[in-house]
């Protein structure tokens, strides 16, 4: 079958990948759409560093290491919608033709493997892939499969908002309007938060933030967002060194700081400012299955419209070029892969 794989730091097209065969408890699906995630872009450029940090964490706390050989092809793609083709032996599931999505996790006789980066488990940048029958969620209400593919990143935003404990009358400031910052804004708007400010250097992304629910947008090149906004909750969705420290210096007493941007580099903060102002700092990652299901429901019921987020669509042979294009925030937010 056809697929796009990571090889030597570049996404390359293949037409000779063996078809996956479902085991008991698994379902073979045809990928309908798959979003390109920023974490995929980072892994393509800095895979060795990601694996090294993963190994360090696993050695300290046990488990969690990613066993990926960068000298061999790597399968990726974890934001997907799909169509059920056939079930594995002794597996009860939805009938063929059912449109589904799923948390990106595959269970097998060998154990549990996240569908993120793997030399063996095929992800959404392929014609077909395997999913776990117990995790399948039918796509309801005739929701466009392209929109359903963005359930996963929207769930990341929902998780961050849930962790913040924000109330309707509290002011939110979102720093960074890439896909995850946009997901946070969409979830804040769906929750009914009355004042949502968003900051980004890119005019295009500020426009998108407005379309997704921000009440005010700010260009950090012109002034600090804290000059015009006094947020109760700050969502850091940039993921570069220096941002956390800057927030600690500028935020008001009692601010809640939610770190949703993934910074892969060493960073420096001055705890004094956070201590003196009793700033609550919460790091967040991913989502739980109930939040994934809630995000799918929000999309299907029209509470969140992800149409403005989708700025491109490519086939499997265009994934490499799409990775290059996404490096420019002025051009794209989310590019979908349609096998």
From TrEMBL:
<dbReference type="InterPro" id="IPR013149">
    <property type="entry name" value="ADH-like_C"/>
</dbReference>
<dbReference type="InterPro" id="IPR013154">
    <property type="entry name" value="ADH-like_N"/>
</dbReference>
<dbReference type="InterPro" id="IPR036291">
    <property type="entry name" value="NAD(P)-bd_dom_sf"/>
</dbReference>
<feature type="domain" description="Alcohol dehydrogenase-like N-terminal">
    <location>
        <begin position="24"/>
        <end position="140"/>
    </location>
</feature>
<dbReference type="InterPro" id="IPR011032">
    <property type="entry name" value="GroES-like_sf"/>
</dbReference>
<feature type="domain" description="Alcohol dehydrogenase-like C-terminal">
    <location>
        <begin position="179"/>
        <end position="300"/>
    </location>
</feature>
<keyword id="KW-0560">Oxidoreductase</keyword>
<dbReference type="GO" id="GO:0016491">
    <property type="term" value="F:oxidoreductase activity"/>
</dbReference>
<dbReference type="Pfam" id="PF00107">
    <property type="entry name" value="ADH_zinc_N"/>
</dbReference>
<dbReference type="Pfam" id="PF08240">
    <property type="entry name" value="ADH_N"/>
</dbReference>
<protein>
    <submittedName>
        <fullName>Alcohol dehydrogenase</fullName>
    </submittedName>
</protein>
